[in-house]
Amino acid sequence: MRKINLLQMVITITLLIMPGLLRAQADYKGCSDHPLLSRMKDFYISSCQEVEYDAHTFYDAKGKRQAIEGHKWRISYKIKKGFKPAGVLKIKKNYINSVKKIGGTILKEGSHAFMKVDQSGRETWIELNTATTTTGDNYSLIIVETAVMEQEVIADPDAMASGMNATGQVIMTSSVEKHATKVPNAKFSALLDAASLSYGEGNKVEAVQNLKMGVLSIWDELPLTVKNIRLVSDTTNYTSRKNNVFRKGEPIYITSQIFGHKLEKVGDGYKTSITTDFLVIENNGNVLGGQQNVLLLDHISPIPVTDFSLDLTYTLSGASEGIYNFQTTVNDKNSGKSTKFMTEIEIK
Q: Does 4 reside within a domain?
């Protein structure tokens, strides 16, 4: 009887545990292998992403980076619980041998292995990433099938003309989608991929350089913007001020950061050209006064500078006690853009 009871107990526990184990080993919902390549034995798909048209950076046969655009897959695999890791070398050899058997080319080997297959006039680029493991318990694939992007947005010049005549503005709509969409910047996406690749290979300096180039690739798309505005108690250590209350005649230090200013190429340098205007406004909205061109910043740097602080010092002479608003207007002479921000202070 004890043997039967013990057996029944074991069976009951197994039935309770197994469903959870089975769920953990199943492929992530909606994921499947790429049609060209199967997976390693005893692995399951832990995550995946499929995008109809995107870009990724690969290495070509000459060791140069290439931004490849087309149908893109990201598939990540993990070893099932209870099974021994496959080993990094075994994973690499399996995929390299498989690609070679179908006439593919091995472009670069390493923790990020790059391969290419030409079939029926279409190129399939493959990146095998084993940089995330030392035992071969996980790996991932990034696959891009080159394709010409299908143009879905249609512009009707006649409709544009009639729209301009009637309202002075044109609203662009897609034949597929009625809401506004933003087409990803292919160069930006490729540089992010390149930064990720460099970081995975341990080249962190190169990763940062690619990230900075990515910022520059979209810099002109940014509106002129002032962020991180704060009052400081000094301009040496930039210690944040505890409150916005000042004594009569006490200097008011404001620091901020500018985004979206145009970097004008001058010779081999990059010029930033900023001016500021200000108004002092009472709490009831009355304008007490102001001044144009308070700050004139013309700076040329050998590198494109996207990060710099805008430091301002204001002093109210003869102002009575009360609440005041400083309206600062930032003008970018290179682009002709302007933006404003308000800072409230109290005089006691």
A: no
Q: What is the pLDDT of residue 326?
A: 86
- Look at the chain and report how many structural domains it folds into: 3
What's the count of helices (H) and strands (E) in the chain, helices before strands?
5, 15
Q: Which domain holds residue 208?
A: 157-175+185-219
The answer on 202 and 234 residing in a single domain is: no
Residue 297 near residue 273 (C-beta atoms within 8 A)? yes
Asked if 243 and 165 sit in the same domain, the reply is no
Distances (CA, A) of 149 to 36, 38, 194, 255, 319: 21, 27, 22, 45, 63
28 and 56 together in one domain:
yes
Give the number of other Cβ atoms within 10 Å of residue 286's Cβ: 8
Q: What is the pLDDT of residue 235?
A: 81
Residues of the chain with pLDDT below 50 are: 1-24, 160, 163-183
Tokens describing residue 84: 């021994």
pLDDT confidence of residue 122 = 82
Q: Which of 208, 179, 188 is nearest to 54 (CA)?
A: 188
